[in-house]
Predict the structure.
Amino acid sequence: MPTDYYEVLGVARDASADDIKRAYRRLARQYHPDVSGNAEDQEMFKAVSNAYEVLSDPRKREMYDLGGDPLRGSGSGPGGMTGDGFTFTDIFDAFFGQTSSRGPRSRTRRGQDALLRVDVDLAAAMFGTTEEIQVDTAVACPTCGGGGTSDGSEFVTCDVCRGRGEISHVQRSFLGQVMTTRPCPQCRGFGTVNPRPCPECAGDGRVRTRRTLNIEVPAGVDSGTRLQLVGQGEVGPGGGPAGDLYVEVHVLEHPVYSREGDDLRCSLHVPMAAAALGTTVELETLDGTHDVVVPPGTQFGERIVLRGLGAPRLRTNGRGDLNVFVEVETPTMLDEQQRELLQRLAAARGEEKVVGPTAEQPAGGFFSRLRGKFS
């Protein structure tokens, strides 16, 4: 029967609580006495149960990683374990707030996330598009497959820390003998060394390269929207899982339309006579040509709303509106005939001379306006 609890459950020394639970359930179903009456299987079931009892309890697991065995009774044991389950390291940590690595580190780690920016025009942001991007990230080394070793070689146990990934020092202090734990300088806390690193990646298990990806930009995105591509970021050291790639969208300025939330807006220049008489203007929108009806007497800055021609609402149904703001153009250069016609119009409307301010903005100071209230 193997005596290493991690070996019994078939998990790594940095396995999570969920990994330990899954391994125990799988082995318990295999070696349970109700399933197999074999004496060797029954002994294996006891070993699996003992291993799970220790590794599922954080305190017992910490004691075991330090060299003790909670299931073998009290008394001082390996790693400076005292009868009550505490080490001199725990006492030192309690006084000075220091912690140790608690066992070898895993060489396999998750990779970093990556962030890129992609520029799209307004029409593509409204209706969605597919963009091709270049990603310069770390990928698994093609020579060693992410393992970090040369062909035929394997990691060997560190002869300094004997696979623990840390070394202990006993020092005298006013507390007595205090044991401190530090990462092993030879294996850097991994517990193993690489005798023949891969020449391509120098033992890291990954190299940098440029990849081409096609990303789907959904309809309705705006500047600042981030798209998450799971598993497309940096590959982790030692062939670890890749991080995620985040693509931040930047919408380029449009020469005619601008965006305000889910709405679009634009300016429509209308001649003075057309604004007074009313007209219909063909407007080339992002959805095609639409008629904009300008009512008679439209003033400068008035808004005409075209329903449902704005941007699609991201992750919901419906669209915003297109707000058309009218800018009435006053003629600046008139010939004699045009001037005469305007003068005749002004005379007919009594607009030959503008007299005083309007009623909405009365002339004079506070007391003049006050007298006007009582006159």
Observations:
- The longest helix spans residues 39-55.
- The domain at 114-251 is CATH 2.10.230.10 (Chaperone, DNAj Protein; Chain A).
- Confidence is low (pLDDT under 50) at residues 73-101.
- The chain has three domains: 5-56, 114-251, 264-349.
